[in-house]
């Protein structure tokens, strides 16, 4: 039985639900209608439930993309350290002195990755691993036999790295060509960021970089050739090796303010990935998602032709595909890791949780991050004091978690404020540990003030008097406005490796955050804004514009200005200011391609479009309104049970209430549904085929999507008992077109839990990797056209028209001399019925059109035991894909047994296919036509292959064995199944069955045996038989015509005797020849 209760009754943790502490406990709860356990899921974060298996997509080892002026392809790179040598595992303490100390016979402190003695002396430490040197030797074998190295014969130390880079450059594989960084736009490109709408110091750079090179010449990153890969990574595939290299060369730069390769604490995670696959997969997911965004970031200075644009899109798609697969695996590993956190260690678990947050923020920042952050908070509470002398990695991870918590809380309704492990009193001490080089470039005291203002805005009047709220708000405003940014900025120079950083841009970034915090206070606490007056806010905005405009795009602190840009953008009153803000956000995307920036660009127009009544409340208060929350799905407390759980149906209704007008928002919806139910995108993969199909459907969001939405939300009204029984033998289920449309809407949304292990939904059509892309695109077009038609029809009409699904069944007939379920009982007295043979240019699904088959006709469809749609262009898949109402049969049809067939009557065909397999064409019925009857009968050869009855060298041919089609038991099976199908509707004088050589191609059926058995079954059922052949089959068809004209063939018994006369060891496709030879 398909339990719609599994849709209405699935329990999921509400967005305001319990803490992650409960997530780490027993995570299963019973569905009210099912005996099986249903997963308890934290919205989109299934750490606590192992997701079902996903169709793993092949990793893209080679990515193609376009930089500003680089078209990079066939890239495989390796991770490296700052000295150009392979990295060493942190778990292995050096047992020997570094190479410098050994040569000079000095005592080495064996610090990793660099000896402090070398560093203090201003020397480059050569590390502890092996030193590789180009010798100029002659190769003795292989393709390079007799050739010498092009590098100098005497290269040592740092010169070896230089020689290596030269060698790469000479071979056309220089680091820049390989895609480690993207070159800046040339001055001739003509692109210049617009000047700010206000301000006197609004200098902007004359050119921009897609990815700025933030290292100074002294800090220049050094590359290693592909063959010099650290043994740590030898067992990794090329794809993971590349993404780990991308992490250390590109993504790490976004995680700190100034990226000094040897001092970036996040790079120390890399050696831990070998021992901790969880860390490896989540870092790969973050890197691949980041690369996907980077490749598709807008390039205003680049004039692309169609081929380059296609390759950019293709590269972005492949990177996103890798990210989804890696994230799915990481989610599984996270579930296992949380069972015993001591095994992997608290720091590794915290790093994984933090990067789950990062992945969500890189993808879109709309969902998932909050629950991951709660998990990170829970892990933080379990951390033991670190025994390591270097706590920089932990400090930065804790700092980032607190920053995400504070910024996330700034726009979160009070009911969703985390019952958290983030204590306000800890904010200054935690943030101070990484303040010098934090990516946000914001003083800790400003963050504490921001958090205080956020909490103040959530206080109710009945808790604290308005006067007290105003007084505290003014005090916070004064504290923020008077903070000494210059002194804070200069404090960073106390850190040895930051003594040369640009202080001016740090002052501008810190000042922008300080002023943005002041603006936030004015909006979050309206009483404060009223007390200081509107001119004060305008002055703050002008100063923020000036500070932002003073930070050029290629400055390391440019990426730190996202939050103040959003705040001042929300205050933008005129079109010029709004345009400047949106342009700056677009440049931020190119500099730091994190998806939450796209969310910010989507949110600002919402704020600008608020009506006067809502603006009078303040835009922050409006965003905190649960009805306006743009980050989270919002549910009332009344929807939750005592455990903070809500039914999935209520969550789904909230998701469907969103305004979906473009592909990104639809993708977010589908991903949220899939991850909530299955723990991953599952078969949907990267949604590439679906995205392309929607792009080719110009009216999708205006005509198709509203219709899908209408029927999806109508499901409870369509099925008041919340269940659909699985069809029993002989049972008929009648569904209205409206009910079918509701089912199809949820199959499109993939919002049904699997009622049985072999169940699948339309997600099999969504991934870009399809066996038959053309067929899948047409199936989706058929589905979209169906909803467009249903959306224009009168509601009463779609509720009145019915589609019938009947599981035809008969008693098994092992003795063909007896047909216990048929009349008349004597085969000798049953004359063979009228048979018509027709030649077509191409096979077609036109006979499903009732105009061709008639009210009393039926079309035979050669099916699998598990009937339904698919990704190819078999006869079954073409008929089901052309008539979407046939697709719902997979929800309640069991696996067909030997004596069963499925009859589907009146499913409306939307399109007509011509041809088969790779050679297909199609047209849409306009105007729409009515559908006839389809008879789904599984082929014998498929069943035999499933049961292992055919050997690998005997699939249909005898080779000394019996032809399966001629085995007495099998002939009885085929005859019984066909008779059950042909007697499933009332007999009239016009009752006709249409068939072809179905099951006789890839399924290895014997055509003569099959057609004779179908003729016999039609005769026993009193039906006429019409057989169609295409041009390629007509040679055989003409022979079959002669066979039917034999005078000896008069009754059903005659046909059976003819089949029994054929030797059982006759080879497949030779039965007709034997009959002709022995006539």
TrEMBL record:
| SMART domains according to UniProt | GAL4
The subcellular localization recorded is:
Nucleus
The GO annotation for biological process reads: positive regulation of transcription by RNA polymerase II; regulation of DNA repair
Statement: the UniProt record of this protein carries the keyword Signal = yes
What Gene Ontology terms describe where this protein resides (cellular component)? Answer: nucleus
Q: Where is the signal peptide?
A: 1-17
Domain of life of the source: Eukaryota
Region called Disordered, residue ranges: 168-206
Q: Name one GO molecular function term.
A: DNA-binding transcription factor activity, RNA polymerase II-specific
Which InterPro entries would you find in this protein's record?
Answer: Fun_TF, PARG_cat_C, PARG_helical, Zn2-C6_fun-type_DNA-bd_sf, Zn2Cys6_DnaBD
Keyword list (alphabetical) reads: Nucleus, Signal
Residue intervals of the Zn(2)-C6 fungal-type domain: 97-125
Q: Where is the composition biased (Polar residues)?
A: 168-188
What name is this protein filed under? Zn(2)-C6 fungal-type domain-containing protein
Q: Which organism is it from?
A: Cordyceps confragosa
């Amino acid at each position: 039985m398909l339990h719609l209760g599994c849709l209405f009754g699935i329990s999921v943790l509400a967005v305001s639900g319990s803490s992650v502490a409960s997530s780490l406990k027993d995570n299963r709860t019973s569905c009210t209608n099912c005996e099986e356990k249903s997963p308890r899921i934290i919205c989109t974060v299934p750490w606590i439930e192992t997701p079902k298996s996903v169709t793993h997509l092949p990793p893209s080892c080679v990515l193609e993309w376009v930089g500003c002026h680089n078209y990079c392809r066939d890239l495989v790179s390796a991770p490296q350290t700052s000295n150009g040598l392979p990295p060493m595992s942190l778990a292995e303490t050096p047992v020997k002195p570094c190479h410098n100390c050994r040569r000079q016979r000095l005592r080495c402190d064996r610090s990793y990755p660099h000896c402090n003695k070398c560093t203090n002396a201003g020397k480059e430490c050569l590390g502890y691993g092996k030193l590789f040197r180009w010798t100029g030797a002659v190769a003795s074998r292989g393709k390079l036999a007799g050739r010498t190295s092009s590098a100098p014969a005497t290269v040592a130390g740092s010169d070896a790295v230089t020689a290596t880079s030269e060698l790469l450059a000479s071979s056309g594989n220089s680091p820049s060509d390989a895609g480690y960084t993207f070159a800046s736009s040339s001055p001739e490109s003509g692109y210049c960021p617009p000047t700010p709408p206000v301000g006197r110091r609004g200098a902007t750079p004359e050119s921009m970089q897609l990815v700025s090179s933030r290292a100074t010449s002294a800090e220049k990153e050094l590359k290693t050739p592909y063959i010099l890969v650290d043994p740590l990574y030898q067992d990794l595939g090329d794809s993971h090796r590349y993404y780990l290299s991308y992490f250390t060369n590109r993504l790490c730069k976004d995680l700190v303010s100034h990226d000094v390769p040897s001092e970036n604490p996040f790079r120390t995670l890399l050696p831990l990935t070998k021992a901790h696959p969880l860390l490896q997969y989540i870092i790969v997911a973050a890197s691949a998602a980041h690369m996907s965004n980077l490749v598709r970031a807008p390039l205003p200075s680049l004039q692309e032709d169609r081929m380059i644009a296609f390759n950019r899109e293709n590269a972005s798609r492949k990177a996103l595909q890798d990210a989804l697969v890696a994230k799915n695996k990481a989610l599984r590993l996270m579930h296992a890791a949380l069972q015993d956190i001591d095994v992997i260690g608290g720091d590794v678990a915290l790093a994984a949780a933090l990067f789950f947050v990062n992945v969500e923020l890189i993808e879109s920042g709309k969902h998932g991050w909050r629950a991951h952050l709660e998990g990170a908070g829970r892990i933080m509470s379990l951390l033991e004091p670190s025994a390591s002398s270097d706590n920089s990695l932990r400090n930065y991870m804790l700092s980032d978690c607190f920053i995400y918590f504070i910024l996330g809380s700034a726009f979160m309704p009070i009911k969703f404020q985390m019952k958290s492990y983030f204590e306000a009193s800890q904010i200054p001490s935690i943030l101070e540990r990484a303040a010098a080089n934090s990516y946000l470039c914001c003083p800790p005291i400003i963050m504490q003030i921001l958090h205080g203002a956020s909490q103040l805005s959530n206080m109710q009047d009945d808790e604290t008097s308005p006067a007290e709220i105003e007084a505290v708000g003014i005090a916070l405003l004064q504290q923020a406005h008077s903070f000494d940014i210059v002194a804070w900025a200069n404090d960073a120079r106390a850190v040895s490796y930051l003594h040369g950083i640009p202080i001016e841009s740090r002052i501008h970034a810190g000042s922008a955050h300080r002023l943005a915090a002041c603006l936030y206070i004015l909006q979050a606490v309206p009483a404060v804004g009223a007390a200081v007056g509107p001119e004060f806010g305008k002055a703050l905005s002008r100063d923020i514009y000036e500070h932002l405009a003073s930070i050029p795009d290629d400055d390391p602190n440019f990426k730190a200005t996202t939050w103040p840009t959003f705040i001042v953008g929300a205050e933008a009153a005129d079109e010029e200011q709004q345009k400047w803000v949106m342009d700056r956000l677009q440049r931020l995307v190119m500099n730091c391609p994190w998806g939450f920036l796209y969310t910010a660009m989507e949110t600002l127009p919402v704020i600008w479009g608020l009506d006067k009544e809502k603006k009078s409340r303040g835009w922050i208060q409006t965003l905190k309104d649960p009805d306006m929350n743009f980050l989270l799905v919002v549910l009332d407390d009344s929807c939750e049970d005592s455990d903070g759980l809500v039914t999935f149906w209520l969550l789904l209704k909230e998701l469907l209430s969103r305004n979906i007008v473009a592909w990104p928002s639809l993708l977010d919806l589908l991903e949220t549904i899939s991850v909530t139910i299955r723990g991953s995108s599952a078969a949907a993969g990267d949604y590439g085929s679906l995205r392309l199909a929607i792009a080719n459907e110009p009216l999708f969001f205006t005509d198709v999507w509203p219709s899908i939405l209408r029927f999806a939300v109508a499901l409870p009204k369509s099925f008041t008992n919340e269940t659909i029984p699985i069809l029993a033998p002989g049972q008929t289920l009648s569904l209205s077109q409206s009910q079918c449309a509701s089912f199809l809407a949820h199959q499109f949304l993939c919002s049904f839990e699997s009622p049985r292990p072999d169940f699948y939904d339309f997600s099999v059509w969504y991934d870009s990797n399809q066996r038959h892309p053309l067929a899948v695109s047409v199936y989706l077009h058929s589905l979209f056209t169906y909803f467009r038609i249903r959306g224009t029809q009168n509601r009463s009409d779609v509720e009145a028209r019915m589609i019938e699904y009947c599981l035809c069944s008969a008693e098994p007939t092992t003795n063909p001399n007896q047909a216990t379920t048929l009349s008349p009982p004597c085969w000798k007295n049953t004359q063979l019925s009228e048979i018509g043979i027709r030649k077509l240019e191409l096979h077609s699904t036109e006979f499903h059109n009732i105009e061709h088959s008639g009210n009393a006709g039926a079309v035979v469809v050669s099916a699998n035991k598990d009937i339904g749609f698919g990704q190819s262009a078999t006869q079954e898949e073409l008929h089901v894909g052309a008539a979407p109402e046939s697709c719902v049969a997979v929800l309640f049809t069991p696996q067909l047994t030997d004596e069963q067939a499925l009859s589907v009557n009146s499913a409306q065909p939307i399109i007509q296919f011509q041809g088969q397999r790779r050679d297909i064409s199609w047209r849409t019925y306009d105007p729409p036509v009515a559908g006839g009857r389809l008879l789904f009968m599984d082929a014998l050869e498929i069943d035999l292959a499933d049961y292992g009855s055919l050997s690998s060298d005997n699939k249909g041919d005898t080779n000394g064995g019996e032809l399966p089609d001629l085995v007495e038991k099998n002939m009885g099976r085929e005859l019984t199944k066909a008779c059950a199908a042909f007697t499933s509707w009332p007999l009239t004088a016009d009752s006709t069955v249409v068939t072809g050589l179905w099951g006789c191609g890839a399924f290895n059926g014997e055509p003569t045996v099959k057609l004779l058995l179908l003729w016999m079954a039609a005769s026993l059922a009193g039906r006429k038989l019409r057989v169609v052949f295409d041009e390629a089959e007509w040679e055989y068809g003409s022979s079959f015509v002669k066979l039917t004209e034999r005078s000896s063939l008069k009754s059903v018994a005659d046909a059976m005797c003819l089949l029994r006369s054929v030797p059982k060891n006759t080879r497949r496709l030779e039965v007709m020849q034997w009959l002709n030879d022995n006539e």
